[in-house]
Design a protein that fits this description.
Nucleotidyltransferase, domain 5; 3 domains; elongated
Length: about 350
């Protein structure tokens, strides 16, 4: 622990006034070991300034450290070994380990890159148009929206990674493995929710993706009953993204015939705006943790975890919408943290 200059001065002043180390300790201005060390240093050197700790002199200057930071920020994916070579070309001889320490001192830590959809200029423009349109909406306004989406669940591969604790030599122990298969079975599900809770969840036949015929049936058999149950005669809006089957003419006509008001138009490549994506992530983690061994078991777990989603969770997700809008506006249309 570093002791301030003022504290050291007080300790020495008390020492000069005849107080012993024990009596100074009783005043609780510093730990006993610190007080005795300061007094000893004063007796030996006649100074209250702490002795400079011995050690190897720093190999690089502040200017060279700033240059290293520029190299890293120019390309975030450059490895420490590559940076060491680039630094050497600038006249600094240092190891990859030194590179890592210098970057760490400047707040640059190596982390796994977050995966987000690529945003084109049109995507960014559409996102900004959408956000400016709804920037004044409160959590209460967003509570009138039913969010919907499809999501794939893959057997032996829902989460993509799994951490285990193992002893030396147990890397390939059965309990420490994450099984994989070349062509995992995929289950596609559609679900919806609002601030009032989760709505219907429907599971498509195995290895079947959504198309316009399936989607119209889902809207008729799943969405409408959810709306009636959650909103009755209250006003509400429907959110869905720009997936081709969602924009099919037959779907647009059906929605118009049902007098369903659509939120949007929803900007492309924007899963960070849809809170149902957070629900899918939670459910996938929970299902993966229970390690289903066949598609029937996985399907049952998906339904079970969907119905177990709490009202508090969906409320928090809805309440996050104003924050999502504000953050993306601040970042000029780029991805937000959600």
């Amino acid at each position: 622990m570093v002791t301030s200059k003022e504290t050291r001065a007080v300790i020495i002043a008390l020492h000069k006034n005849g107080l012993t180390g024990k009596r100074i300790t009783a005043r609780k201005i510093a730990p006993q070991s610190t007080i005795y060390r300061i007094i000893k240093n004063f007796k030996e050197r006649g100074s209250i300034v702490a002795k400079k700790a011995p050690g190897r002199p720093r190999k690089t200057s502040k200017r060279q450290d700033r240059l290293l930071k520029v190299f890293q920020l120019r390309d975030r994916a450059t490895s420490s070994a590559e940076l060491a070579q680039e630094w050497q070309q600038a006249g600094v001889s240092a190891s990859a380990r030194t590179v890592r320490w210098r970057l760490l001192e400047q707040g640059l830590v190596s982390r796994r890159a977050a995966k987000k959809p690529l945003l084109s200029r049109k995507n960014i423009r559409d996102r900004l148009i959408f956000f400016k349109r709804y920037r004044e909406w409160t959590a209460e306004d967003w509570g009138k929206v039913i969010f919907s989406d499809e999501s794939p669940f893959r057997l032996f591969g829902t989460s993509g990674k799994q951490l285990v604790r193992r002893r030396q030599g147990e890397r390939y122990h059965q309990s420490c493995l994450m099984p994989t298969v070349k062509h995992p079975e995929t289950i596609h599900v559609w679900g919806c929710f609002s601030a009032k809770g989760v709505g219907s969840l429907t599971v498509l036949p195995k290895n079947t993706a959504m198309n316009k015929e399936w989607y119209q049936n889902v809207l008729r058999e799943q969405l409408l009953p959810t709306v009636q149950e959650q909103f009755g005669d209250e006003q509400w809006l429907f959110q869905h993204d720009g997936t081709p089957c969602h924009k099919a003419k037959v779907i647009s006509n059906w929605l118009r015939e049902q007098n369903i008001e659509i939120l949007g138009p929803w900007p492309g490549n924007s899963p960070d705006l849809n809170p149902i994506e957070n629900l899918w992530s939670i459910i996938k983690r929970r299902v993966d943790k229970r390690k289903p061994r066949n598609s029937d078991k996985m399907q049952a777990l998906i339904v079970q975890e969907w119905t177990a989603i709490s009202q508090d969770l969906v409320q928090k997700l809805i309440e996050s919408m104003p924050g999502r809008i504000a953050e993306v506006l601040k970042k000029r249309g780029q991805h937000c943290k959600y």
